[in-house]
Specification:
Elements (H helix, E strand, L loop, with lengths): L2 H14 L28 E6 L6 H17 L2 E5 L8 H13 L4 E4 L8 H9 L4 E4 L11 E4 L2 H15 L4 E6 L6 H17 L3 E5 L8 H15 L5 E4 L2 H13 L7 E5 L3 H8 L5 E4 L2 H16 L7 E3 L3 E3 L7 H7 L6
Parallel strand pairs: 1-2, 1-3, 3-4, 4-5, 5-11, 6-7, 6-8, 8-9, 9-10
Antiparallel strand pairs: 10-12
């Protein structure tokens, strides 16, 4: 090969290893690599967002927040999918495995079960797919790159203090549990019971060990049984999520106890807001679901693009009451999609 041609090829090869500014380019990680290096070119990132369910108002707001993040960040496509029922662990595992097989760039997951989903989050990591956990925690704090959620234990404490205030620090109460394995609601239950025990010794817990189900229909049946048993003694009730609150509201109405029993729920829905305005429901502990969805997607995209990612992102908890529900801040949190 002529010396001049050889030199020309050498120079071209050297320039080919440089960016537009003449500096050597950083090596590109594969799709969803945990190194946090940005993907090459203008490739649209495919982010799977897997909620616990899709029908409740909370998840619809989370979806809106996730889509807001995708739009703002640019070149991000959200694939939103869940199993049909919120107690179907195997169904959610199947959804996660399907997204792993599709080699998504990232996964944002609200695990139904804090332990059952651990092996599959680890499987995603081994496949080079970063995972952000949102809403409800996982019994593995190392594998996920971030955890985005409310301080659920404090949410339960907020409910306990407000219910105690309504009862003038004495009386009998019922706590309804949601579903075994759910970390978020388990922390709410724990925060509620611990606060009553430590701060309000004259409040007696009549029942705190009944899991009433993941739908309003299942909750109604269980709540009716509780009210038939304790209806003459109970002064206050706390339900730890939207479907449970909806089921208890119907049960209180059917047992002619609505308004007579002080009632605190968790997470809003249109029918629950109507009930609170009518003072059938005396308070709702609320989260910021739009922010949860937004921060979850933002965290995984930032990681993929090599930006800073925080291990824990707390999104806040608030108390809405009949007295403050029309304030601007509460209106936004109670009906987030209308104010998005």
């Amino acid at each position: 090969m002529p010396r001049l041609l050889w030199c020309s090829l050498f120079v071209m090869a050297l320039l080919g290893c440089q960016g537009e500014d003449g500096k050597p380019e950083k090596p590109q990680a594969g799709s969803g690599a945990l190194t946090g290096a940005a993907p090459s070119g203008n490739k649209k990132l495919r982010i799977a967002v897997i909620p616990k369910g899709t029908t409740h108002e909370f998840w619809k707001s989370v979806h809106a927040g996730a889509q807001n993040a995708a739009t703002e960040l640019g070149d991000v496509e959200i694939q939103w999918k869940s199993q049909q029922l919120e107690d179907d662990r195997e169904g959610q595992i199947s959804v996660v495995q399907d997204f792993i097989s599709k080699k998504m760039d990232g996964i944002v997951l609200a695990p139904l079960d804090s332990q059952a989903l651990v092996p599959y989050v680890q499987e995603a990591k081994q496949a080079g797919i970063p995972v952000v956990i949102f809403d409800s925690g996982l019994n593995d704090q190392e594998t996920p790159i971030s955890y985005v959620a409310t301080d659920n234990k404090n949410g339960g404490a907020v409910a306990a203090r407000h219910l105690a205030k309504l009862l003038e620090n004495k009386g009998n109460v019922i706590l309804t549990r949601y579903n075994q394995g759910s970390e978020s609601t388990g922390l709410r239950e724990e925060g509620f019971l611990e606060t009553l025990e430590k701060e309000f010794p004259d409040i007696k817990v009549l029942s705190s060990n009944v899991y009433i189900g993941t739908t309003p229909e299942k909750s109604l049946d269980q709540c009716q049984s509780l009210l038939i048993k304790f209806g003459k003694e109970v002064h206050g009730v706390f339900c730890v999520c939207e479907p449970n609150t909806t089921g208890m509201l119907r049960a209180l109405e059917q047992e002619n106890l609505v308004g007579k029993v002080k009632f605190i729920g968790f997470d809003p829905a249109p029918q629950l807001l109507e009930a609170m305005r009518a003072k059938k429901l005396h308070g709702i502990v609320i989260q910021d679901p739009v922010k949860i969805g937004y921060e979850g997607v933002k965290a995984v995209v930032n990681h993929i693009r090599g930006k800073e990612t925080f291990k824990r992102i707390v999104t806040g908890e608030y108390l809405a009451t009949p007295e403050n529900m029309d304030s601007p801040e509460m209106k936004t949190l109670l009906s987030p999609q209308q104010h998005d």
